[in-house]
Amino acid sequence: MDVDNVRLQELNNLLKTLKVNDQVEPHTLIISIDLGTSYSGIGYILSTEPDRVHILDQWPGHTVVKVKSPKVPTVIKYGTGGCGFSWGHQVGLRDEKKLEAFKLLLDPSLPTPEYAQINKVRKNFQEFIKTPINAVDDFMGALYRYAIEEIAEKHPDEFSVIRAMKFVISTPAGWPVTAKNAILKAARDAGASPITHIQEAEAAAFFNMRSKEAKALKLKSQIGDTIMICDAGGATINLTTYTIKRLVPLQVVETVPPLIKEDPNKLSAKAGGSLNLNKNFENHIKSFHYIETLNRFDQEIKPAFSNSSTGNFEVKLEGTKLTDYPDGNLKDNTMSLDRYG
User: Fold this and answer.
1) Segments making up each domain of the chain, as ranges
2) What pLDDT, in 10s, does the model give residues 215-233?
3) What is the pTM of this model?
4) Which helix (H) or strand (E) holds 72?
5) Which of 46, 67, 107, 174 might form a disulfide with 89, Cβ 3.0–4.6 angstroms?
6) Segment holding 198, helix H or strand E
């Protein structure tokens, strides 16, 4: 099961937990927003269908056609001088001006993943005259507005009689107070109120104790039981331990805070996660094709060169999709070299 699906299931279970504990009142809408480091998601419950959790799975893209995905990339790009912005799937994957992993820049003690090229992100912030807090505010606001618009469009009859809305916001376990408060403030400033705050690892604990797998194995939780949660996300990894304090409604308490393997006394998350795997694979592919192209130049083109050679030599650049550049002798991913370079 991939990381995104696990996080969505945690979101589902958290919403159901709130429904069981608080009892969804008539004409109420509960919205849960997960502002992740790499990807974000939204789930919601309508009081007319209290046992059904809905997930937003379509997002704004480059065109009027929406992108179908259970998650939206947590990236944002501002216009010239910081005016206006595009977000999520609207931002190109290879856009050099995009701002990513900005959630980790809310506090200097937070780890930063290698894939994010944080120095470049910081430079882009300066160019846009923006701060990480600005990015969190704008992205959270975009999530909030889009959630309201989509829910109103998908459920016009139910939405028209909504009298109350509740919001659930999750943050990583062991996060600095400054970073956590910045996210909660961004949600409130966007219009989300009242807010129930929960740690992501705590939501994972609820999910696992009530999962189909736990029921299939007949695992019955008891007061005093202790469980350890490994939150292996897209950008960070941490371990948190909880002990069950109450069963109905379910309540857990943190007994061992998030720890880093290399430094058990440091309460923080380790920079890692699945997106670093993407970066490592990308580097491997680049290295592979670089060596392949260099070998072809060394073993085929150089030996074929002589004073009597005529015409140009062509080098196929494998594993790339480059824009044609006639003045630079580049076409169809092939570089043409004349006798004089």
Assistant:
1) 3-272, 276-337
2) 766 677 889 999 888 887 7
3) 0.72
4) strand 72-73
5) 67
6) strand 195-199
